[in-house]
Amino acid sequence: MPFVLEFDNVTKEYRSFASKRRLLALDGFSLSVEAGEIFGFLGPNGAGKSTAIHLAMGFMRPTSGSGRLLGERFGHPGTRRRVGFLAESVALYHRRAQRLVQFYGALNGMRGTDLGKRAREVLEIVGLQDHANRNAGKFSRGMLQRVGLAQAIVNNPDLLILDEPTSALDPLSRVMVRELLLAARNAGKTVFLSSHLLSEVELICDRVAVLHRGRLARLGRTADLLRAGEQAEIIVRAVAAGHFEGAMARDGVVRFCVPAHTQRAALEKVWKLGGEVVSVNPLRRSLEEIFLEVTADPLSAAPKGGQ
Amino acid sequence: MKPVLLIAINFAREQRWPILTLLLWVLLLAFLGLVTDIPRQREDLLFVFKQDAVYVLAFSVFFGGSAIYNERRSRRILGVLSKAVGRQQYLSGLVLGVTLACAVYCFALGMTGSWTLGEAGFPVSRVWFLMICLVAACALAGTVALMFSTFLNPFFAAGATAMVLGLPALAGQFLGSQWGYVIPVWELGATVVNSSFSSPGTASWFPVALAAAETLAFWLLSARIFAYVDIAVAVE
Fold it and tell me: Which residues constitute the domain of residue B153?
């Protein structure tokens, strides 16, 4: 399968000439994003997510290593015609929303009545059709983010690179963005999504990567990551709680959790003790738990998992 | 070419308030033309005309020196360069934008100057030649400032530009007039400032052509430097 976005052992170091300080934002970072997937790019603040995105967009150069965007080296202007980008903090010119979207579309080589039609269409998609003739300078943060999204999709891009696209949106608008991204994937587009909203990432992303201190700390299919370390909650009756670690007796039953792979042994132990099994429920981990686990450990910045 | 034009027009549009402020001075010239006895007050009118001309030269340095800084600080540059726009095209757009912003002003000044000074006996063709000199000087001064602004903040960019533009002029004073043509902004400015009713001067196209060539050279140099700049890094 072709990769639409590839980072190959990319290192980015920021240097301050005044204080001679150095900051390693990315450290030997490698990642490949496949065509047609929604890829979640996670990490705590300062992990290097935006740096990676800016390198991919050609806004800066890597200190070492290289990368490719849609088959071309990072920074190739022609390639960006097929890319839609939304920056973390949306900054737009103060002009009418419709004109603004047309301006960005025109920069991508679109023109004429098709551009006007498409601009109206994308403003409708992001729910701003009634504000098309209002000056974007007077928009709220959420509305600005939606105009930003409109300018990102105006050229019907093959790859969408979105840095925190829903940070300022209300729940309704978030649902709209989620549907938009799913529709893009169904249309064969690729979405590279950087977000702190882990519940959303969990819902829509096919794969996720967790970046920590400039290094890839975890990478894998979302479903696989959530399954890994899966636990089961067992509820039994007529057994003393003391037989199982962490068990709690309440309302005449005893509840305890065991790793999924030791579930059978635990059940056999219950039966051996003369107990009765009331229920066994698989417990899935949340992406938040994985994120906290990865980012809490300072030494965890080494690739694990792996599709 | 289309992205360059779009960026240029957008830049000029973004500078509409400074341009409108500058145009107030042209309005002052027009006002003086209306309320004074033009033939009798012609020296005063010429003085205001020259003053207006010098202002736009200073503004071209301001436009060029702050363009990239403002765009980076506001992070609007990311929106533009995330499209199919090369950095060279982006800079071309800014150079054209600075020139366009100054040309709009020079056109207004030329129109008002043709009317007021023309009525006072100053050759109208000479007024327009002076405006061409002024636009060429603004384009060059703005591009030099833009070049410095690719790696300096506006304050230092303006200082460095003043040095680069001023040193040849200084050398011209002490070492011989040919030194003034090394970077002919001063020469072009002097053509405007030294014009008088008694000697409107002759139209020499050499400094204009030289300024155009040097604008091109500084633009290329800017593009070369700008290609290596991390534009997403906070400018503060």
Answer: 2-226
Instruction: State whether B78 and A83 contact (CB < 8 Å).
Output: no
Domain contains B232: no
Residue with tokens 């301050």: A16
- The strand pair at A248-250 and A253-259 is best described as antiparallel
A226-281 pLDDT, tens per residue?
876 678 889 999 888 888 888 888 888 999 988 888 889 999 999 999 999 999 98
A104 vs B contacts (CB less than 8 Å): 79, 83
Domains of chain A: 3-226 (3.40.50.300), 231-283 (3.30.1490)
Q: Is A83 on the interface with B (CB under 8 A)?
A: yes
Mind telling me how many Å the CA of B17 is from chain A's nearest CA? 13
Dihedral sign from CA coordinates of A177, A183, A185, A188: negative
The reply to whether B228 touches chain A by the CB within 8 Å rule is: yes
Please identify which residue in the block is written with the tokens 């830049």.
B11
Question: Residue A103 and residue B232: Cβ atoms within 8 Å?
Answer: no
| A289/A306 Cα distance (integer angstroms) | 18
Domains held by chain B: number: 1
- Whether residue A108 lies within 8 A of chain B, CB to CB, comes out as yes
Determine the residue of chain B that is closest to A53 in CA distance: B232
| pLDDT tens digits along A80-128 | 999 999 998 888 999 999 999 999 999 998 888 889 999 999 999 999 9
ipTM above 0.90, yes or no: no
